[in-house]
Write a structure and sequence with these properties.
Dna Ligase, domain 1, 32% helix, three-stranded mixed beta sheet, 4 helices, homodimer, 6 strands, alpha+beta, DNA-binding, Arc Repressor Mutant, subunit A, 150 residues
Chain lengths: 150, 150
DNA sequence: ATATCAAATGCAAATAGTTGCATTAGCAAG
DNA sequence: CTTGCTAATGCAACTATTTGCATTTGATAT
């Protein structure tokens, strides 16, 4: 079974419809291997197939993220990036403020926190992202705007 | 010395100019006592004084937040809210997904993390917010859109 | 193959927030 | 009080993203 077919099966198993757009979006993410934003995914789908609308892209990225197929990260420049979730379970990210590299962080502070600290909040979701300068960018802190090719 | 005068002095001590808009924004935040968003602050300033531009509001909220005078929190509906920073040092927040109440969380996971986990990233800033249902909203999980009066 | 129905899509308008650039206004020095 | 410099402002255009609503389409039952 191809990687694409596996993703498609997972999608269907979650009760989502396998549409033309979704197929291409998944193919695009498989092709890219790294992280892509909505604009890049839009360009990929648009170039390859039919016309597509940005709202469809956004709605699909939302849907695929919420069933756990994609992983979403907000870069320091406030743009959301997506990648296929490599089934590595719940995790967070380290994001370089200079080159925008995204590194996986296999640590979540939430399980260690007691209910008292959580002030009796329930169904707590954790937003936890670290923004800093990666090893390669120590000397060269650019604060790029994210339009460069990285 | 009034509370306002104290804030103004702090602002000047950070090398910022004390402008008409900033004075009113600070007065508005003192009046409100809770959390306000850009639109509410805009309305307050607009009603009270001269015409003001939204970009001035946003730029000032940014500036006042970065010198540490204000505290910024993104609610679950993706709108930013601001309040005067009660000099309680670095902290994070618990945000109710139903009534949007914001509670202070005097805990930061960052200091406990070792450099290895941080993959040699430096100057790391921590974005850490918890979204859940507060004690009062256990039974009544509304997911309001944030346009209600709360 | 055809009908059916909800989910997905396209479209257009709206949202929160940002940015470049020309103008204005604090504040300090003369 | 006037001058000068820079930070702050207004304006208009732009960004990423969301939403309501009418239409289409994928999966399922006939």
């Amino acid at each position: 079974m191809t990687a694409l077919a596996g993703l498609e099966q997972f999608l269907i198993s979650k009760g989502c419809k396998l549409t033309r757009s979704r197929r291409i979006i998944l193919q695009g993410l498989l092709d890219n291997e790294g992280w892509s934003n909505a604009r890049e995914i839009y360009a990929y789908v648009q170039a390859r197939v039919h016309k597509i609308n940005f709202s469809t892209i956004y709605r699909n990225l939302d849907a695929l993220t919420s069933i756990g197929l994609l992983c979403r990260v907000e870069r320091a420049d406030a743009v959301n990036y997506y990648t296929l979730n490599q089934a590595s379970g719940h995790h967070h990210h380290l994001i370089c403020k200079s080159c925008h590299k995204i590194c996986q962080l296999d640590f979540c502070p939430l399980p260690q926190m007691d209910p008292e600290t959580l002030q009796n909040f329930t169904e707590v979701e954790c937003r936890f992202d670290l923004y800093g300068f990666c090893h390669e960018c120590q000397e060269n802190k650019k604060y790029t705007d994210g339009n460069g090719s990285d």
